[in-house]
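hi! just following up on the protien thing from before. the input was this:
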Amino acid sequence: MNKTADSYTKSVRFTEETNERFSSLAGKLGRDKRVIFRQMVEYFYRTKKDPQDINDDLLKNTLVKNHDTYIRFIRAQEEMILIPVKTEVDRMVASQIRIIDSFNSQVLKANRDILTGQEKQAAAMNSLLKTLTDKLDSKESLKTKFLYILNYYSKAVQNATPKERESLLQETKTHISKL
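and the predicted 3d structure came back as:
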């Protein structure tokens, strides 16, 4: 609703000092003095504040009351929700720590057992390989031993009787089977 200069019929009288303050206030707010005056009246009408009450006890009391209500709400939420949730989370964390510790100890024990078994297996394999290596002669060594037995047999057969030859043949077979 835009008011024209003709629609204003009332006037207010105040001192020059008040006029200077009022003009300064209007300048700071960037509005006309009539607009500022109308807004001041509307403000005091709506808020039911007393302009003489500089400390504005009504506003303070309302703020304190709202603050107290807010604090009571927060404390109620803390007791009903936050503390039980924190307790359960702490309990769950402690339980998880116990589970992890138990799991880690079992895994470590299993790993140690596996490692011990592997070490025993490796030692047994090394022992077996050494035994096999010791038992198995090289191809050249076997040839040499067989030639020795064969030479011995051929020399002995030349001067032996048929009965001695039979005995020599048996002895030669025994030596060859030991190779």
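DSSP finds five helices and no strands in the chain.
Residues 22 and 76 are 48 Å apart (CA to CA).
cheers
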